[in-house]
Design a protein that fits this description.
The chain is mostly helical. The protein contains one helix and no strands.
């Protein structure tokens, strides 16, 4: 009877080990899939960051250009007002 019990326990342990090995295999496959997805996501994020950086640089240049235009327009307006004031003073 003890031999039968030991044999049953051994078979039960082998069954549990087989199930655990199957679960380990599934976990390793899942881990590989997660790593692959993570790698793809990182590549996509890098691409998005590059586009955002280029866009930020373009916006910075646009604002710089607008500031220069605003300054030039203000200078020209000051000149026109000064000239108009002189013209009125001469009349």
């Amino acid at each position: 009877m003890t031999a039968d019990l030991n044999q049953a326990n051994t078979k039960s342990a082998q069954g549990v080990n087989a199930q655990l090995n199957d679960l380990l295999k599934d976990a390793k496959n899942l881990n590989r899939e997660i790593d692959k997805t993570n790698s793809e996501a990182n590549k996509n994020i890098d691409g998005i960051e590059a586009v955002v950086d280029r866009s930020v640089n373009k916006i910075t240049r646009i604002y710089s250009d607008l500031d220069a235009i605003e300054e030039n327009a203000g200078d020209e307006l000051d000149k026109l007002v000064l000239q108009r004031t002189k013209d009125l003073a001469d009349e």
